[in-house]
Write a structure and sequence with these properties.
By secondary structure, the chain is α/β, with parallel strands linked by helices. The chain is built from nine helices and twelve strands. The strands form four sheets. The chain has a six-stranded mixed sheet, sandwiched between helices. A two-stranded antiparallel sheet has the order 2-3. The protein has a two-stranded antiparallel sheet with strand order 9-10. Helix 1 packs across helix 2.
Length: 268
């Protein structure tokens, strides 16, 4: 049993927690940090995770620092983070992890994708995934979440992917479907309700007798139809929906083969 760890996440949380700000000459603020402090927090966190997972067999996954395929899909992907610095000791802790523990970086992939692939390609016997990134809820298998190990089914993972497609993710910088928030996204997907346009004749007011397009919810067995119908109501197309779905999708074993990425397409 192997615990697959989001290396980006654990390094960031460990180092941002130990940054300190002090005043100098009553006018200047100096921000400083210590590798030793960050490393100590990382080890404490790692110990807690391995105790909860009941294994000492770990593998850290890191993002390719040169960029990922999603930046080619959408120029603004995570664009708001370009001017955001990493915590001061971040890269030192990352290098410390690489020197002391097994790790994996796959070209053009984020840590999330590497985790998704390793969780589903059979390389590890009964793996457990740890990350605080909600995107990983797409990945079937065992997850260490909220201090317990929970199982995500393939159906739950697919549903969460389409939820992300509709709701978007401001943290990652992709918008989803305009006008659709988290509550509406969950409701229409869980109830499998797509939107169907119809002509409505106005019966009062200055535009009496004229028609306008309205929408009604209709049940369907095709969840992709649910997603597309909301994009179309927003004045967009199925291609727009597909772009968001491909950005939102965390790769799994069936979408990655020796460096070749197969972008997500809806099953019909």
């Amino acid at each position: 049993m192997t615990l697959l760890i989001d290396g980006d996440m654990i390094a960031y949380r460990s180092t941002v927690a130990v940054e300190k700000d002090t005043r100098f000459l009553d006018r200047y603020h100096i921000l400083f940090s210590s590798f030793d402090d960050g490393w100590h927090v990382m080890l404490e966190t790692l110990g807690e995770l391995t105790d909860l997972a009941e294994t000492d067999d770990v593998l850290f996954c890191f993002s390719d620092p040169t960029g990922t395929f999603r930046h080619k899909l959408a120029r603004d992907y995570k664009g708001h983070r370009r001017t955001t610095r990493k915590p001061l000791a971040y890269w030192d802790v990352v290098e410390g992890i690489k020197k002391r523990y097994p790790y994996r970086i796959l070209p053009n992939l984020e840590a999330d994708d590497t985790l998704g692939i390793l969780m589903t390609n059979g390389e590890f016997d009964d793996p457990i995934l740890w990350s605080l990134d909600k995107d990983l809820k797409q990945i079937p298998g065992r997850h260490l979440r909220d201090d317990e190990v929970v199982e995500v089914t393939p159906e739950e993972g697919d549903l969460f992917h389409l939820y992300q497609t509709l709701a978007g993710d401001t943290a990652d910088g992709y918008p989803g479907c305009p006008g659709i928030g988290e509550t509406i996204a969950w409701r229409v997907l869980e109830n499998r309700m797509k939107l169907v346009p119809y002509e409505h004749v106005l019966k009062a007011g200055k535009n009496k007798g004229k028609t306008e397009i309205r929408y009604e919810e209709v049940p369907t067995d095709d969840l992709w139809e649910v997603v597309v119908s909301h994009f179309e109501k927003a004045g967009l197309t199925e291609e727009d929906a597909l772009e968001q779905a491909r950005i939102a999708r965390i790769l799994q074993a069936n979408s990655y083969d020796n460096g070749e990425i197969t972008l997500w397409t809806p099953s019909r």
